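Could you join me in thinking about how sequence relates to backbone shape in a protein? To get us started, please write out a protein record for me. Would you write everything just below, so we can both look at the same thing?
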Amino acid sequence: MALFCSIAEAQNVKKSLNECIEMALNKNPAIKADVLSVERSKVLERTAFDIGNTDITLNQDPTSGGGPDNSLSIGQKFGLPVVYRSQKKLLKAKTGLESRALDLSKNELLKDVHTAYFRLLYLFEYKKILLKQDTLYKTFLHIATAKVEAGESNVLERINAEKLYNENKLVLDNAAKDISSTQIYLQSLIYSDELVEPLEPQLFLLASPLSRLDVQNTPTNKIWQAQNEINEQNLKVTKNGYLPSFSLAFNYQMLIKGFNPYNIDRQRFKKGDFTGLSIGVSLPLVLGAQKAKTKAAWHDLEITKLKQEADNTNRARTYDSYLNDLLKSKNSLKYYDETGMRQADKIINISQLAYEKGGINYIEYIQNLKTALEISLQHIAVMNDYNQSVIQLNYLQGYENK
């Protein structure tokens, strides 16, 4: 109950499409999370040069004099520079994927906002026509009632007039509910405290998109490209497993005089402290596992490329399908703009005058009204189909690349 009260009490505010888009991009928590993911990935790039912990060992032999058995040893393991460069490139590639994922999320959100906004425009235009129809049916009911009272017509004519008037009221009520539902949906997309009405006074047509899909610049293909880059860099990192690693250690004579539980005479070497240096190389001698890892990384690369090809083919086919729908809507719009709407206005004006003067009966009048108003409803339905096709085409191409 509280939810319905809050919806009923919410205030409507007029906003343009661009204002709704800006609010959605700035307030949507999913977009904010994707932005943080990009920032997190950039931070992780600084972990590329990670050579591991430095080993520090203190060795004290209480039975040894000031010899090398009493020493401080510092050791470090590291790989070749190419190893760290490869890791850096891999982390940068992962940042690129996160960035492309952010673009994809924005593109999805833009599609949802466009869809909701233009559905609202359509529904408000639909309501205008129903209100115009309400006025006509109300006039028809008034004339029919007057004719019955004057004995010029039978009760059946008034009953039909009441039926049309009440049915239209019901359709108007359902249209208002559809508007409310769409407003709530748009409100959830842009995280507004108020229900939104389109700023534009009437339904308008979006600009036509590209005639062909530019596959290489679609958001989804850029995701595939980023994943391919990751796979390529991962393959290089995996191949680094064939390379040797190195270790470097430095030993320095160390003698803690207070640590002598056996009272051994412990003197430093008279000619100076013992120092030592050791260098080690780790070589991969058993290569079976490494070969398997490399082959698996290569398969990852090939699998992604095949999936990319299949996805791009499907999207190009989907784009052509929406483009075909767009062309059909264009042909229909040409008819309504050049002929249909003018005929609808003439039908209403001529029929109303003829009915008032007795030139046509109420059945003909009702049929003419329905024909004229149906033309108007079909006109805005085609406009809505056109806009929704454009929205889908722009979504497939990417709103930033349209």
Q: What stands out?
A: DSSP finds eight helices and six strands in the chain.
